[in-house]
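Quick one: structure tokens for this chain, please?
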Amino acid sequence: MYSILLQAQQSNPYFQFVFFGAIILVFYFFMIRPQQKKAKDQKKFIDEIKKGDYVVTIGGAHGHIAEMEGDTFVLEVEKGGRIRFNKTAISLEATKAASKK
């Protein structure tokens, strides 16, 4: 029994480094990289928004952009209501909402 434990402790140390490196690569490609890509797409989408576009905010408000001022915009909702939001409040899902309109 002790010989099995001694053999397990004398494993190749390079294998451990390769194994931990593989774990780090898996985390990068399955967790970190997709999140960075999504953030980049969100920023690009927000930068390309213009007056008249149909958007959905992260809070769920649907409407057309009536005015753009710096990093804020005025959203025109049903019955002529207008609400001011920051550009960061626009959801990337607005493209899906516009296609269902």
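Residues 13-47 form the longest helix (35 residues).
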